[in-house]
Amino acid sequence: MTVFDTVLIADWSAATRKPVKESKDAIWLGVARAGLAVEQVYCRTRLEAEAWLDMFFASERSAGRKVLAGFDFPFGYPKGFARQLTGQDDPFAVWQWVSQRITDDEKGQNNRFAVASEINRAFPGAGPLWGKPSEDSWPEIPYRKSGIIYDLVAERRKTDLVAKAASSCFQLFFNPTVGSQLLMGVPTLERLRKRHQAAVWPFQDIDGAQLVFAEVWPGLIEGAVKQALANGAAEEIRDKVQVRLLSQALSGLDERAFSTLFDAPSSEAKEEAWIFGAGCGQLLDRQARLATTEADMTLAPPPLRNDCFALPAGVDWTPVDDALAHLRDRLHPVTAVETLPLSLALGRVLAEYVVARRSNPPQPNTAVDGYGFAGPAADGAQVLPLVAGRAAAGQTYDHAVPAGYAIRILTGAALPEGVDTVILEEDVTCDGAKIAFNGPLKQGANTRKAGEDAAEGDVILSKGRVVTPADLALASATGVSHLAVRKPLRVGVLSTGDELVEPGEAAAAGQIFDANRPMLLALLATMGFEPIDLGKAEDDREVLRGHLDAAAERVDVILTSGGASAGDEDHMSAILREHGAMEQWRIALKPGRPLALGMWQGTPVFGLPGNPVAAMVCTLIFARPAMGLMAGADWQVPQGFELPAAFSKRKKPGRREYLRARLRDGQVEVFKSEGSGRVSSLSWAEGLVELPDGAVDITPGTPVRFIPYASFGM
Ligand code: AMP
Ligand code: MG
Question: In this structure, which ligand is nearest to the CA of 678?
């Protein structure tokens, strides 16, 4: 049993903005759960990292997970430092002191040497901070350590000595720049701990805390990191390997190991902080070496069971709804989770609930251009003197508006103190010094309440949802910068049949051009999956097996068309059957039966019929919702409309039918032929008509269910 559901490790950096391409000495964040690495996130700047961490802690909290977050820079200075700088022995006084002064921007440019100079001024003699880019800059910071006397405070903390860490938190420049990392890390921690109610170990009691911050030092698992780099991770960025192994190692610890590591160390730790695991380095290194053997494992969900397509025995023709219910029961997400900035999240499936980080609107504001005052206004003529100045969007009015006065206010402006009601400018006459208007006006008129759209902490988007442009607006408006989403489901498309040739090739007598593959690949793309062209295979079992073997390595799902029936030339169903994991799904459906569903080396295969109409209908009705579940989305039910038919048709009971249809003048037309080889009908249609399993007798005007193509994600 582990004590933390999630472990996050941050490899911090004091550097300026790093390139777009993953690189070293940037900030790396590693996430692990249950002893498995989930992801490593590359952050170009501290601002980016803080935004990510904000999002991450919020979503972990909403998922009810207990999190240990380790940061690889000192949380405190040696004993005596805090008192000299702030007059108190409290390490948080230092955090506050530093965070009030440090500035940092989206290029990573910061004022740490100016702040370090100010620290040094608080100490007698040279230092204690030292190290800078050039000898002639920052006179109050010594270039080298020699000459600094560490008597008022020691050069190293107790934990640095125990951990045998080579670095000192006073070194600002030349590697290791631990002193700079501290200055540039503590402000982030100070903000995050307050926003997310984190308990900081060992300064605070961690019992019952949902989120714990601890200082970590990857040096403790150096042996394991070297081993991983030697064993094939050589191409990888060292910082990335470090956060992966350390997060994985810590998340695999059991309760006993945790209580040993959290055991309050020396008395100095309450002020100086303590490296998590210092003095127990062997335990961590051993754990991390175990992790290296699974270095390539990320926490992708478990594969599907081999029998997931097995239908109940003895059923002859399975009704469509039963077949769908069966898929819905047996399938689950198979794609891994990653965290993306909003700009990359469109069309992805949300892997977690999204919680508003800030209310929208954040404060009460005005919905119109006009004049604000304390409402309500009584019936009859009103005259109010104006205060000087105005309130506009982004330009707050910082004083209170006295009772009986009004202020000029523009749309979107935060209501100043003393204002809760706004009169429209069109309803007012104004001479520059006062306004006149006719009451009555209700208190709160023309204003928007704080949080009336979304309140901080509200779930704004649900898990399993496909991110839309409007969702991006909502996330951004409520202060969410990143979303935990699923990687796209990779779907391979293979055409089978000796008769098939590629468009553009010469076609001999008896040959036809492949219509299914371009259609299926395009369908997948519009549905938000990642289509992968697997080409075509001739009707030869050996060849087909080779294709499926190769495909199973590359993709999450395989769609094949052709050869899915039970005839002599139906090799797809034959080899799936030989393989032991094939189910011939005889579905009571027209067009489309039969469907061969099977597992090929752990990868699900949808063996679609070869006829293009049947291939498309089966994809829309069965493959799409099934693939949606595997991609992490909710079960999708296509929305349809009851509309009058413009056609006549008599249908016997027994199977559900889909007709190619389109809407004209509010009526549903169907294609002139029901032939399942009619590719032109698919192109002619703009949707499908769904006729129920039972018998129907349709005449013009009878309501029928029309499902537009768009309802299938096309
Ligand atoms: P099958 O399911 O293999 O028996 O094929 C049924 C019908 O669909 C046959 O007429 C095939 O020639 C045709 N067909 C199979 N695959 C394709 C394809 N990729 N494009 C167009 N027609 C196809
Ligand atoms: Mg065939």
Answer: 1
3-state secondary structure of 222: helix
Strand partners, 707: 688
pLDDT reading at 226 higher than 90: no
| Cα 685 to ligand 2 centre (Å) | 25
**d(C-alpha 152, C-alpha 84), whole Å:** 9
Instruction: Give yes or no for a contact between 623 and 638, defined as CB atoms under 8 angstroms apart.
Output: no
Residue nearest to atom 15 of ligand 1 (CA): 610
The per-residue pLDDT for 297 is 39
β-sheet bridge partners, residue 454: 360
In the prediction, which pLDDT does 1 show?
38
- Residues composing the chain: 714
According to DSSP, the β-strands at 512-513 and 459-461 are unpaired
pLDDT (mean) for 177-194: 97
Q: Over 80: is that where the pLDDT of 566 sits?
A: no
Pull the structure tokens for residue 249.
């190692």
Ligand 1 pocket member 609 (CB < 6 A): yes
Residue 499 Cβ inside 6 Å of ligand 1? The answer reads yes
Our CA angle for 108, 110, 113, nearest 5°, is 140
Coil, strand or helix at 353: coil
Q: Is 197 left (phi over 0), alpha (psi -120 to 50) or beta?
A: left
pTM above 0.85, yes or no: no
607 CB under 6 A from ligand 1? no
Task: Give the ligand at the shortest distance from the Cα of 535.
Answer: 1
pLDDT of 233 higher than 50:
yes
Pair type for strands 211-215 and 354-355: unpaired
DSSP letter string over 485-518? EEPPPEEEEEEE-TTEE-TTS---TT-EE--HHH
- Residue 480 near residue 354 (C-beta atoms within 8 A): yes
Average pLDDT over residues 262-275: 86
pLDDT, tens digit, for every residue of 60-98?
888 788 999 999 999 999 999 999 999 999 999 999 999
